[in-house]
């Protein structure tokens, strides 16, 4: 039975390799890969992008059992945009995760393992266990890594249940953020954002706005008299502005000033020692140290080592793909989207919803020997909580140009925080994510897909 299955798989793999070639690249035979570990498409990553792409491909009707392989070492799949809600006491972290193997379609071959390396010249990858897996098309979407070591003393502070240091960028500590917010009765609260790319660039201030609203309701903070309040609030960001898109930055900067939040711009957190935080400053200026009673930290982030050290990466370590087609600039049977890609836009789940249809369409066209003509316009979105009950819904494309869904439909200004957007963030998006996006049937602003 096993021999017959292996023979069948070998025959199918040989047939596909003979018929599915690109005009710009011929696929080499991988002699040291077992036929049972050769697939038409290998998807690296079982996160938002990986599950969306693999299921969209399957729904095309062009793939059979084990044609598509998914590679990811994780046990759990997390709805990470929801960790802000956990930090604000609006959700529990347990309700926002699912066992990964339960989300992977049984028609896929699931390698629950890490990736040790890529061999794009012979169309194979090496798993953490040493096995080689061959592919005709490779999709690299493993997300990015959080570098806790970028801030000296951070790991120790997060692990100490007595410390007032937390981060919503970690499953283990996102609920600690709410605990520290509730416990603080007076003193200085500092919320940080690093220089450089991170997941959801609005999240560092989302948790700050929720904390401010919590303390306001508790009578501990008066936005009209911040200096006379029991709690003082600072936003220390390695960036020169509140937000990278001019329209929304203007609205958020006005909000910061109206609410009396101190803006510490181009302050990049580098160390924590007890109740003291040290920040690097630009232009060779001497670092400054500030005392805190509560510190919410966003560590620096970057590409995973196995991507950064590979032939697929650009100088910054991200998968080097075309900004429009999502296809690799050198290896024409390699694709990427989401956080691991070089696409010059925000790293958000919303961006993925617009990237994956382009990638899937172009990959399918390639398999048929056709041109990859679909183009991604850089769309991304950030539903930015500004208080309990209101969200500023930032939507934009390449160049920081606003691309507002509800502005187009109803003529409203999405830079104005609204209650209706709050329910999208709190209720609709988590629901649509697990019921449709990870199954490949959600297209973001374009709604449901087949």
Automatic annotation (TrEMBL):
It comes from Hypocrea virens (strain Gv29-8 / FGSC 10586). One of its GO terms (biological process) is sulfide oxidation, using sulfide:quinone oxidoreductase. InterPro entries: FAD/NAD-bd_sf, FAD/NAD-binding_dom, Sulphide_quinone_reductase. GO terms for molecular function: FAD binding; sulfide:quinone oxidoreductase activity. Residues 40-164 form the FAD/NAD(P)-binding domain. GO terms for cellular component: mitochondrion. This is FAD/NAD(P)-binding domain-containing protein.
